[in-house]
C-alpha cells in the first residue's frame, strides 16, 4: 500500500507526485512557495513562478535547474 513509510506517493491515477520548495533556493524576497503535483504540472508552474516572481529569463539553464530541484514525494507514517 502507498501509505507505508518511504513509499512513493501517487495521485488517484497512479501518477507519481513530485514537489519543489522555493525555500531551498537562494532568494532576495525570502520566497516560501511549495508546489506539488505531477512532474509536468510542477515543472510548468515552477518555471512560470521563477520567471514571473523572481525575474529569471526562460533559458535552457533555468529549465535544467528546475528539473534538478524536483523531488519525489513520499509518505511518512
**Helix tally?**
2
Rg, Å, rounded: 14 Å
Quaternary state, please?
Answer: single chain
Percent range for β-strand residues? 5-15%
Distance between the termini: 12 Å
Q: Characterize the biggest β-sheet.
A: 3 strands, antiparallel
Secondary-structure element string? EEHHE
Helix-strand makeup class = alpha+beta
- Overall strand count: 3
Low-pLDDT residue spans: none
Which strand order do you get reading across the main beta sheet? 2-1-3
> What is the residue-averaged pLDDT?
85
Shape: globular
| Helix proportion range | 25-40%
Layout of helices and strands, plus pairs?
Layout: E1 18-21, E2 34-37, H1 39-54, H2 60-69, E3 71-72
Describe what you observe in this structure:
Helices cover 34% and strands 13% of the residues. It has helices at residues 39-54, 60-69, and strands at residues 18-21, 34-37, 71-72. The chain starts with 17 loop residues before the first strand and ends in a 5-residue tail after the last strand. The mean pLDDT is 85.
